[in-house]
Protein 1
Amino acid sequence: MTKHVYTFGGGHAEGKADMRNLLGGKGANLAEMNLIGVPVPPGFTITTEVCTMYNEKGQSATFKTIKPEVEAAVAYVEKLTETKFGDKENPCLVSVRSGARASMPGMMDTVLNLGMNEGAVEAISKKSGNPRFAWDSYRRFIQMYGDVVMEMKPASKEEIDPFEEIIEDLKEEKGIHLDTEFTTDDLKELVNRFKSAVKKVTGKDFPTDPWEQLWGAVAAVFNSWNNPRANLYRRLEQIPDEWGTAVNVQAMVFGNMGTNSGTGVAFTRDAATGEDIFNGEYLINAQGEDVVAGIRTPQQITLEGSRRWAELQGISEEKRASKYPSLEEAMPEMYRQLNDTQQKLEDHYSDMQDLEFTIQEGKLWLLQTRNGKRTGAAMVKIAVDMLEEGRINEKTALNRIDAAKLDELLHPVFEKDAMKSAVVLTQGLPASPGAATGQVVFFADEASKYPESILVRVETSPEDLEGMHIAKGILTARGGMTSHAAVVARGMGKCCVSGAGMVRINYKTRVMTIEGKEFREGDWISLNGSTGEVYEGKVATVNPDLSGDFGKVMDWASKFSRMSVRTNADTPHDAKIARDFGAQGIGLCRTEHMFFEGERIMAMREMILAKTEDARRKALDKLLPYQRDDFEGILKAMEGYGVTIRLLDPPLHEFVPHEEANQKEMADEMGISVEEVKALVHDLHEFNPMLGHRGCRLGNSYPEITEMQARAIIEAAVNLKQKGIDAKPEIMVPLIGTVKELKLQADIIHATAKMVFEEKGTTVDYLVGTMIEVPRAALTADKVAEVADFFSFGTNDLTQMTFGYSRDDAGKFLPVYIEKGILKNDPFQVLDQEGIGQLVSMGVEKGRSVKPELKVGICGEHGGEPSSVKFCDSIGMNYVSCSPFRVPIARIAAAQANLK
Ligand code: ADP
Ligand code: MG
Ligand code: MG
């Protein structure tokens, strides 16, 4: 029989850490912590398989199946805690928590203090001798359960939460400012007002039966797997919908029992920089999410951290020590235990941990541990440090690098000179490093209003996820280093300044005020997420420095990869950047842009509009020296490595003059009338240029173009050779569908090369290959390989032609397709392994069946996307090629692919 429920508690557990697929990350680690002697309140985990069952078979069938196991597990918790569910004297209170395989912070909602009702609150008042605490727990329960299970949400984005509104009203009536100032009677009043509000809004009575509460909460967790923000997070993080979430039910411990209680979150190392410094935040007399909710100012755990924090906030040491003491000062014994525990957990998991703890009347409890989210910089530093500390080996260290996250390290920082004149408006907390500049928006769903926006909020919530993703940076007025905004931004690698207390925001008027200065929606500001500074206006940025630890990680990549990584570069400048990032060659050098530049476009237009071969050759002769210079430059920049140069590809009509003035200029140049030019332009019009007169179709209609380009390339290589420079040209014929198309072009290239060699009295090595981008070429790759020295899969066009999606128009329907689950990803970004992948692997196999040593690579966008790179490795490609800034990412992905 399948087991659906796994218990843990009192140093025992039915699950363990490596069961995260079944128990979710949270459940698996709660079990594991029990096994290694870390104090964890007892509880049980309902498996992710039950969530899948719930989605397939529905609620009643599922609950019927698991009911006996859940009841037995509740009995187990009751026994360990010596309490009873629904009991009038000694009630058992639990939390109901979601927990998927991959951590989805804030994605699904937790209900605390479940089991509370009129009887329980009295019993707990009596038992604890602390009625205020009992009623505070009760009002929190109604608030959370009302929100999560009964869907009491704000009516619109301008409105505040209905429960918060009631709280604010009562505060005003009582003339108080803080939640902690409520008396027991005030809390009772809140409970009453909450209950009537629930009744009024939902039409239902707030449930009093703990079992009804429990099943309601379990259902809510399962339902939340499919809520829009969970769906969005899964899409962003590419987490499959099928995984499902587990539900953790766990005995409550209370951080809100008074001044010897508290709750907090901590990291075993610095999640922003990676430094090996234990750090975190806590609040005395608080529960659950209070620390991250930004309602009160959280205090630092360590004394060192507290002093750093005070300095950043401009708070004097005296005030800090009296008003915001660290845990280390306030509860030294608790601090000692917590510090030992964090070290124990880090030693055990050999990775930086992000943990949640609660102190109940001088006893420490751990409620969660997981591998902490971190910035790209911290990821690199922690992997390198842990390797050097001997905790992990090189392969593990390499696998700890999330290739896509390296991107952050390659992003700009503020320019030093621009910084000198930058005006600091205020300072918040350095929540997630990097530099960002953009126009102010106040609502997450308006982040796309400007190409570069800064999302400014009092605080963020999971609903804001999509907008946070779009914005260049995030600024919040409230919340600490572990606030929602800070944690999510670090996970996204997005610049964030949190808790900038001087920032006043009025959502209604859409105005932000910083020390008297007003900023409206659309005004420019800049953020430094590494220092917490907020600047007025736009501040220029520069690219970061990439040595040190980053260099070490790149060395591991070289050591472990089989494939090499090339770059797509059209200019010596880009080639140089890519080489510095470790590119070994150019996988795609497009020659088009070279024709657009400066005066060349005139010669090019003359060539296209020429009516005779003679006239065409005359124009081509003008282009030859330009092309030769360009090729010399780029071959030299990649000295010693192969440079794949693609012959002219775009449709001819892209080059011809469409504006009257240009047409006139062209007419004068060619000595014909404007009308004639117009007629020629008209003749070149195509209904479907993507499938029109482009690629090798041009070279086959006008062989003299190929001749000129081949001559320019070979002459460039010969010239370089004569200067002692090792140039390795690889000439690539685009868009072939039949071998004959390639054969005719290859013949021209070889004949031209022979001619150049004779003229120059010397030779160079060169290759002639083709791009495989028309499906027919992949299907007949064995024939094509007879003529080709190499294949380069042009997966952009191959995707376009195989799906039949125009890449330039797909923006209209792809988002809908992804939303509806028709496609998992944008196939122009992530290679569709199931479909396009078949053509690619068939192409490789067929090609190598006639030419075993055939060199094969990929040069579409996919060459820099980690999952696609791994696919390329699995089918035996020699290299991938991507844009210069993606080279490090591709190198890591290539190495990781080869480790498996
Ligand atoms: P999330 O995944 O959003 O972090 P959690 O399930 O971890 O949600 O819980 C939210 C908050 O409630 C955390 O601060 C957690 O420590 C706290 N919490 C959860 N269960 C309990 C419990 N049984 N006793 C005390 N606090 C709890
Ligand atoms: Mg440490
Ligand atoms: Mg948590």
Protein 2
Amino acid sequence: MVASAEKPSFICMGIESTAHTFGVGIVGSDEKILADARDMFLPEAGMGMVPRDLSEHHTAIAADTIATALKEAGLAMDDVDVVAFSQGPGLPPCLNVGAALARYISLVRKIPLVGVNHPVAHIEIGKLTAGPSDPVVLYLSGGNTQVIAYAEGRYRIFGETMDMAVGNAFDVVARLLGLKSPGGPEIERLAHEGAYVEMPYVVKGMDMSFAGVVTDAKRKAKDGVKPADICFSLQETCFTMLTEVTERALAHTNNKEALLVGGVAANKRMQKMLRTMCEERGARMKVVDSKYSGDCGAMIAWAGVLAYMSGQRTLPKNSGIIPKWRTDEVDVTWMR
Ligand code: AMP
Ligand code: MG
């Protein structure tokens, strides 16, 4: 369907299904994002997410999401040359939906399969959309919180959460305040009307803890502290912890650039705090394009392009999901 003169040398379809979002992205080897279709499972206000419900959601909307992505790109399934999928980390029932589908597409179409590490995909879509660089990365999402920098073939983790991810902490607090899902944007909205009340600030070396602020927020809500004050203080406390660790990583690595990625990167207060810190130490601050900050198929497709171009292929026998795949276990062959 694409005229051969304009067709990039190959087209990669990426399937994302680690947690709440089922996404299908299509990216060309010429770095163009041709499609990014997604559907996010949204629980009712006050309810959490059950992995089985998420996987049933993904299964139900998978075919439609693929059709939407192909339509958006103006392509047919026959135009797709490589299929990439989120192989981990994530919730096993959710990961299995994307993995099975990608394996099936690869088998039926006889095209290569590439298993992608989800956090690495967040980093790479950040670099693609914010401009190429070799930054200290602050990766903040619903399932992960890590301060990362590249060294010798791997994205090394300099600091991370010791318990829950910051996005998850926001979602849990939002839920206990009766706010709608996803909680992060609601916390950000309410925080504009809030004032500071002290919350537990826990940084140990380069690692952080967010479980304490959640317990404290629960207690404060019960004691009648205004929801807006809880939201404001939650943001100030968590974001200051994250900025402190990122600043230390910049100092240790002598790096002059910070890149903010992951769903929480959309938060304007987080962006401002990080930007101020960077300016004070003469570093640049970049942030992923907000269209691609949350989980999406485009980031998996782009990471698939990079991995495929550097020779990576995932054989069917190695295509099982890796629910606890860490960022620093990935061979970043395209940076060598
Ligand atoms: P991801 O797992 O990367 O898709 O990111 C989803 C997480 O980002 C969820 O925990 C959301 O609540 C959070 N999030 C999205 N937008 C914002 C925002 N503006 N402020 C804080 N957290 C946010
Ligand atoms: Mg994510």
